[in-house]
Amino acid sequence: MPPEERMKDDVRLQKLPPMRYFWWGLLSTILASLAWLRLSSVPQFTTTTTSSSSSIVLPPSVHDDHNSNTLQLKHIFHHGVGSEQYMIHKRLDITPQYLAKHRAYFTSLNENLQIESIEESDWPTIHHGKNPFQIKLPFKHQQNKARRLKERNTPGFIDSYLEYARSVNGDAKILGRINLEWVDDDVSIPNITDRDTVVSLATIASNAYVRFPKNDDEKKKSDWIDVGGWDPDEDNHDVNFGWDYDGLRGHVFVSDDNKTVVIGIKGTSGAGLPGGGSDETQRNDKTNDNLLFSCCCARVGYLWTTVCDCYEKTYTCNQECLEKELRRKDRYYEAALDIYKNVTKLYPPETTEIWVTGHSLGGALASLLGRTYGLPAVAVEAPGEMLASRRLHLPSPPGLPKHLEHIWHIGNTADPIYMGVCNGASSSCSLAGYAMETACHTGYQCVYDVVTDKGWRVNLLNHRIHTVIDDIILTYNETAKCVEQAPCRDCFNWRFV
Asked: Which pTM does this prediction carry?
């Protein structure tokens, strides 16, 4: 604008009456306020600076789905096993008061998990810095049908059926005369094609390995609630000393709306098998591993100590003896049934969707529990449990279409335990005292072929839950395709009488 024109404008502004200034200022203020209100109604994204660059942090896409939610740890169940502890069943509620009481412990736990996860706790790297007792895990679900026993939750029904099935040696003709009533229920199942959901379920399996505060006896007694049939002996009040070192543990996660409950069953602990966690329950873990996944009581050779007395002679085993051993009250399968029953007292199955998951031994137990009660089950790197399922004579609906079976096994081709090749005199499992002789799974197999895709070699370290989450599931753009188990038979060279 020429200088002369600017001077004319200045003169005109100077001649404006004072009231005009007032209305002009008020109008400007109103327009500015409207603009600010419009901007404030738009979602604001936060820019964060990382060590390498800046990026926009968008809301997780999983929360955009109306079928998505989050899960958080609410309870821990511990069921004793063994001849001295099997009647002990306790529950720990993860309340705000409990978390506040042990705040110092959890602060230390977070720091230790970041340092020691690979070496000891096996807590996934993706969750470093997150408290395992407060972490929120996203998941997606979808609706489907499930064919299961109508009376499955009637008290005593499942126990009576399993006992009768064992008494008739699982004879299909005799069991067929019972005329079990099956129903097709509308159920919510995990979306196995969603990577976040698979990671969350695997994390719940990993969470079951994490240690909880137990610095002294007083804390144990004040935090844990008795939920089983065990009554303390007044004359021997220390009978429960060490109860938490022998047994099966179930970590119960609950969704925000209390409509979905996921039970994470603890897997194998102990030296020799890199599953995760400490050696808290090592002795009974090994006993139940060898009972569930060996051909005959871990009778591998003359130098082996068997876990039951069912071996008769070379490659000959007493079938009835094996079945009795699996159903003993102090074994893990029975403990898993009791944990489920006590969870349903808090979350009735009529109004709650209950899923089960676990890693290794915990995954196999999750599958067996899922098949018993018709629950969706996701097992991570579990040994073959088909043989145990048959020995237990678990109920199976006649003519069950595969799309109504909701048991998934997540595995990888470089894990010798999942693939069923961790056996033989020189194998790592055998050297550690484990007879892992089964390879056949039930349900769907969702296998990551890391041997072909990544050039990995078969190694026992690839069985770790930390490796599965951080180095396998999260490195693939899609989840593994789930297919039916190919025709498979374990212990084909054994004779069961």
From this structure: 0.81
- 261, containing H or E segment: strand 260-265
Q: Which among 428, 412, 425, 424 is positioned nearest to 462, based on CA atoms? A: 412
Residue 489's nearest CA partner among 412, 420, 435, 411 is: 420
Cβ(419)–Cβ(411) below 8 Å: yes
Which SS3 state, helix, strand or coil, does residue 30 take? helix
Q: Which two tokens stand for residue 412?
A: 């990888």
Pairing of strands 54-57, 68-80: unpaired
pLDDT tens per residue across span 12-56: 444 444 454 444 554 555 544 444 433 333 333 232 333 333 332
Q: Tell me which residue has tokens 């997606």.
A: 140
* Tokens of residue 299, six digits: 């009778």
Gyration radius of the chain over CA positions: 29
> How far is C-alpha 364 from the chain's CA centre?
11
Stretches where the chain sits below pLDDT 70 are 1-67, 109-121, 212-222, 228-245, 269-282
Q: Which of 68, 200, 269, 360 is catalytic?
A: 360
Q: For position 213, what pLDDT does the model report?
A: 65
Using CA atoms, how far apart are residues 20 and 57, in angstroms rounded to an integer?
Answer: 47
CB neighbourhood size of 413 (10 A): 18
Q: What is the pLDDT of residues 241-264, one digit of tens each?
A: 455 567 899 999 999 999 999 999
CA distances 49 to 158, 324, 379, Å, are 56, 61, 38
For residues 244 and 218, give the distance between their C-alpha atoms in angstroms, rounded to a whole number.
14
360 is catalytic: yes
Please give the torsion angle defined by the CA atoms of residues 408, 412, 416 and 421, in that order, rounded to the nearest 10 degrees: 70
CB count within 10 Å of CB 179 equals 6
Indicate the domain borders of the chain. 3-42, 62-496
Helix (H) or strand (E) holding 35: helix 18-40
What amino acid occupies position 454? K
Q: How many beta carbons lie within 10 A of that of residue 356, not counting itself?
A: 32
Query: How do 377-380 and 407-412 pair as beta strands?
Result: parallel
